[in-house]
Amino acid sequence: MKKQEDLTREQSEAPEGGLSRRRFMGAAAIAGVAGATGLGSAVMSREAFAAAAEEARNKFVIHPGELDEYYGFWSGGHQGEVRVLGVPSMRELMRIPVFNVDSATGWGLTNESKDVLGRDKTYLNGDCHHPHISMTDGRYDGKYLFINDKANTRVARIRLDIMKTDKITHIPNVQAIHGLRLQKVPKTNYVFCNAEFVIPQPNDGSEYSLEKSYTMFNALDAETMEVAWQVIVDGNLDNTDADYTGKYAASTCYNSEKAVDLAGTMRNDRDWVVVFNVERIEAAVKAGKFKTIGDSKVPVVDGRHGSDLTRYIPVPKNPHGLNTSPDGKYFVANGKLSPTVSIIAIDKLDDLFDDKIGERDPVVGEPELGLGPLHTTYDGRGNAYTTLFIDSQVCKWNIADAIKHYNGEKVNYIRQKLDVHYQPGHNHASLTESRDADGKWLVVLSKFSKDRFLPVGPLHPENDQLIDISGEEMKLVHDGPTYAEPHDCILVRRDQIKTKKIWERNDPFFASAVEQAKKDGVTLEADNKVIRDGNKVRVYMTSVAPQYGMTEFKVKEGDEVTVYVSNQDTIEDVSHGFCMVNHGVSMEISPQQTSSVTFTAGKPGVYWYYCNWFCHALHMEMGGRMIVEKA
Ligand code: RUQ
Ligand code: CUA
Ligand code: CA
């Protein structure tokens, strides 16, 4: 191991990594493989090496008919959805439309989805980055998944029992929700989220000056999805995380300069981590020490320098990810333009807020890891894994040793550097955001795939790599191409998620259909009826494979037609669809679900509707006709 240490020192002293990094890599890889196979420092035989590599490669294989150990929830980036994968197989299991329009399920087309997406402000795009699962006492409780929309300043919630988006909130007074994390303890009462961009206040054209511009940290009530409060900050806000006491949340700021150009954002050697004192903020709101902005009723408190609600901890330079260690001891801020990460001791924050220590005193370690540290994740055994964007590596390092090194002890805190392909953004270890961090798998979301897959034109897929971290040595076991752009993912043990196999009749997801049926005197599970209400026509029909309860209905040209389909099948997996030809209408109706869609009847004539989710040997025959008469 002495040799490795020497090389590590050389590496951290070398200005750009470069040659000495590569030498270090080679030595570390050989030492690691030898160690893991119990051969000590002896050189492995070619056969032993091949066998070890083969074993590592097969570990992620889930044979046909077998189930994965973990659910993985992936953000769909600017594609706007959430994807569900099985880990370690990396097989895609489902897609959950959120901010996007989805032709298969009718998300963005059905009334149920429009109720969630909102009818006053409608967007067809979204940009989701950070999927996070609700917690009770620092453990995933499997109830909800929350995700941000940077593009249109929203936060969405997915009900994990049905894996559908059930609430979307537009955050007022700010622009571009980026970092999002959840309160972990005592449970997820708040969804914390950062608005990234600094804007004038009020932003109504009466004001354009930078002096009167700021951004805010936001807390949503996780149950109501209403914004509970907003905190004005200095600089901008990037990523965030919460602690394991329920008292603190912290966010990185890369633009302490409040610059509006690239060069300007890099002017300061240090930006900061801003720490939010949740108790003090709640008390301020309760005491009425807040203002409101425009027609928003959300309490806004001032957390700029000098406030007792926040503290600003200087860290180098344009920091990005902010990750809480699963033992609850540290926030780690990732330096991005600095080769370092900053370890912030959470147990020093009380003293910081009481002004008993200096602003940099909570920083108890600042290990140098390599070029472009973006995000850190943990194995629950005291090690951290940081992505190095510029080096295209993951660096495994030991937190305790990094702290010792900071205190002047001569220890090597770097355990291994592994090449990934290429330019990694987030990485995420299994259960890492909870007390249960189990250190089995590490997913690395590489932004570039370059030569790793068959070429598909100028637009390349990204490359999500799976790394086995259960042993001393990180081992790359799988490449998975993904479509734009999974910023982040979360891995959850499969027993932590409990889904329904069929819908419950009268699920709140389609409450408005149930309500309307009641008003119309219609029993959704039995009736096939057409109800005319002026030029509005409501068509209620059932479906049982392979038939709709109604094979013909009549409307007039220009009528506003709403079709409600209630699936009476009770057998798992027998979903139907409803597609009205030449009307832009398509939706999913799973067992015991009611779905509805509203459209304007086209020119007089006959229009077929048909089932577009394969449900039966006679699925092709499942259809009917809408007769449109002259008005
Ligand atoms: S961010 S690549 Cu949107 Cu989570 Cu860091
Ligand atoms: Cu019903 Cu296909
Ligand atoms: Ca900066």
TrEMBL record:
Enzyme Commission identifier(s): 1.7.2.4
Swiss-Prot/TrEMBL GO biological process terms: denitrification pathway
Chemical reaction(s) catalysed: N2 + 2 Fe(III)-[cytochrome c] + H2O = nitrous oxide + 2 Fe(II)-[cytochrome c] + 2 H(+)
Cofactor binding, per record: Binds 2 calcium ions per subunit.
Keywords: Calcium, Copper, Metal-binding, Oxidoreductase, Periplasm, Signal
Entry binding sites for Cu cation Z1: H320, H375
Quaternary structure note: Homodimer.
Keyword Calcium: yes
Protein's organism: Marinobacter salinexigens
Cofactor(s) required, per the database record: Ca(2+); Cu cation
Annotated Cu cation A2 binding sites: C611, W613, C615, H619
Molecular-function GO term, any one: calcium ion binding
Binding positions for Cu cation Z2 per the UniProt entry: H129, H178
Family: Belongs to the NosZ family.
Record bears the keyword Endoplasmic reticulum: no
Annotated localization: Cell envelope; Periplasm
Annotated residues for binding of Cu cation Z4: H487
Enzyme class: oxidoreductase
Region (COX2-like): 535-631
Amino-acid positions noted as binding Cu cation A1 in the UniProt annotation, renumbered to this chain: H576, C611, C615, M622
Cellular component annotations (GO), alphabetically ordered: cell envelope; periplasmic space
Positions bound to Cu cation Z3: H130, H426
One Pfam family, short name: nos_propeller_2
InterPro entries associated with the record: Copper_CuA, Cupredoxin, N2O_reductase_N, N2OR_C, NO_Rdtase, Nos_propeller, NOS_propeller_2, NosZ/Cyto_c_oxidase_sub2
Name of the protein this chain belongs to: Nitrous-oxide reductase
